[in-house]
Each structure stands twice: as structure tokens, then as C-alpha cells.
Amino acid sequence: MAKPIVYVTRKLPTEIISELTEKYQVKMWEEEEVPVPGDVLMKEITQASAVLSMLTDTFDEEVLNMASQLKVIANLAVGYDNIDVKACESRGITVTNTPDVLTETTADLTFGLLLATARRIPESVDIIRNDQWKTWSPYMMAGSDVHQKTIGIVGMGAIGEAVAKRATGFDMDILYHNRNRKPKAEEKLGASYASLEELLAKSDFVVSMLPLTKETKGMFDAQAFDRMKQSAFFINASRGGVVNEADLYQAIKDEKIRGAGLDVFANEPIGSNHPLAQLDRVVALPHIGSSTVDTRNRMAMLCVENIKRVLDGMEPLTPVKN
């Protein structure tokens, strides 16, 4: 009897894939930095029982219609807006993601991005690299303090709480906005619940930790930036689609807010010609929130475990519910 086929949409370490090769036939797109083309994915998915996917892979009706044998899509990400979960459910396809294992790593990056933006660290590095440091002056590359300022976290999930925990080390006042109140976080971290309008008006740093949904798409728009302090920074380490990027560009250009730190964009990848990347007061990163070797390995192993469990007729560890 032929082994079930597991298709992996990006090159992953051999030691991780070897966990699948004993029981399954593993086929893998052998590129690490280039996403699998859509036509290749549609061809491979016709015979696959499982797919270990990346957030760059789209699973819509057109793709899923080709998947006659597919039982599970294990997405190597917390977010799953690249997958039509409802369409998967109607076909009996289980969707899984990788929460929790990347929480602390992503929170590290988010707070690092906040610090780099406030203190103009990348700009200062460029001064050295471009041989522009001629003398010391009292206001050269003067940035903004982080300690004892107010951070407003929009989306108080596990990563949002981890960011808030880091903010306590900087003696920051912590505001948060979420669909549901988090009494334990309020007690443990000293965080205060606020309406979105109040959070935007009071925060020195507005941090988006939102998933991308119909409700959150474009939430941060001109109206939101108008409500923020002129001295405030916008930080996004969640999903690019929650921001109207043209409005953010204009808000920074018109000095309605001071700047932004962005790890994600609406259409990725971007280049140096992207309008936001051309602004001095924007720190732009290439979507590296959870990108450490340890964490990416843990994410991949969780995907592998979810695939094994579903193909063995068991419940996955981290199923996505529509």
C-alpha cells in the first residue's frame, strides 16, 4: 500500500522532516527563500494527504478544489488568513497553526522594534556606515524616551500580554484594547482596559497585535492616526492588512504622528521603493517577528506533530476553528 503523501511548501531542516519520512512519502519544494508557485502547489495538492504550509501559500476555493485526498493543512504561523478555513471545514480538512511556541520570541522583536524606532537606532547606524559622524552635538539623532511612557496594546492575546510584560520593565503605563477584558492580565501586569479611542489618544506607543479579519482590516486609518498624539509612534508586528498604509504614510509625512516601526506590510515582500520604507522615521523589517532558529524549529516540529496526529486519526494539538 502506498504511503500517504505529505507536501512541504518550503525547504525545512532534514532533522525535522525525518520525523515524517518513516510513515509518509514526503515531497518538498526545495527553495528556502522562494515561495512555491501557485501552479506547482495546485499540482502537488492533488495527491497530498497533508500539507505543511507557509503564510505565503494561499488556500482558497480554487486550490482546495484540487485537493481530493487532503486531510490536514498545518500552517507554520499563528495567523491563518492565507487559508479559507470555512471552505476547509466543509471539505473535512483540518487546519492547524503554531500558537504559543513563538509568543516570547515575537514579543522580544516587537519591543525591540519599539526601542529601535523611538531611539532612531537604524538611522544612527547609517550615520556611521555613511561616514557622516563628524562631531558630537547635544541633539544629534535625539529620539524619544520609552521608560515611564504609555504603551497602548491593541489585541491583548498571548503575544500582547508578553509585550505588556516587557513594558513593565520600562516602568510604562499599560493600556490595552481587546474584544474581551483580561482581568488576570490587569492584575498581574497592572494593565488598564481602554476603548480604542481612549487608547489612541493617550498612548505614546500604539502597538498592534491584531489578527487580520474582516473586522480588523484597515482598522488603523487616517481617522485612527488623527486621534493619536503628534509625538506618538505606531508599531505593527501583527498583520500588514490591519493598516491603511497610504494613510499611515500621510500621517507621518504630515507630522500627525512621529513615526512607525513595522515588521509587516499589506503586500509582502516590499523593497526600498515602498513609500513607507523611504521615510526616515519608519523602521521597516522583513517580517521577522518569530525568526529565531530555536523558535522556527519549534514551529516546524509542531506542524509535524499536528500532521502525524491527524493522519493517525487523532485530534491535532493546535486546531484552528472557524
Give me the CATH fold name of the largest domain.
Answer: Rossmann fold
Mean pLDDT: 97
Low-pLDDT runs: none
Beta strands, count? 12
What would you call the structural class?
alpha/beta
The overall number of domains is 2
Discrete helix count:
12
So, CATH architecture of the largest domain? 3-Layer(aba) Sandwich
Helix content: 25-40%
Largest sheet: 7 strands, parallel
Write the element-wise H/E pattern from the N-terminal end onward.
Answer: EHEHEHEHEHHEHEHEHEHEHEEH
Distance, first to last CA:
34 Å
The outline comes out as globular
Q: CATH superfamily of the largest domain, called what?
A: NAD(P)-binding Rossmann-like Domain
Percent of residues in β-strands? 5-15%
Describe this structure in words.
One of its GO terms (molecular function) is glyoxylate reductase (NADPH) activity. One of its GO terms (cellular component) is cytosol. This is D-glycerate dehydrogenase. Belongs to the D-isomer specific 2-hydroxyacid dehydrogenase family. The protein has about 325 residues and is α/β, with parallel strands linked by helices. The protein folds into 2 domains: about 5-100 and about 295-310, Rossmann fold; about 105-285, NAD(P)-binding Rossmann-like Domain (Rossmann fold), CATH 3.40.50. It contains 12 helices and 12 strands. Strands 8-7-6-9-10-11-12 form a 7-stranded parallel beta sheet, sandwiched between helices. Strands 2-1-3-4-5 form a 5-stranded parallel beta sheet. The mean pLDDT is about 95.
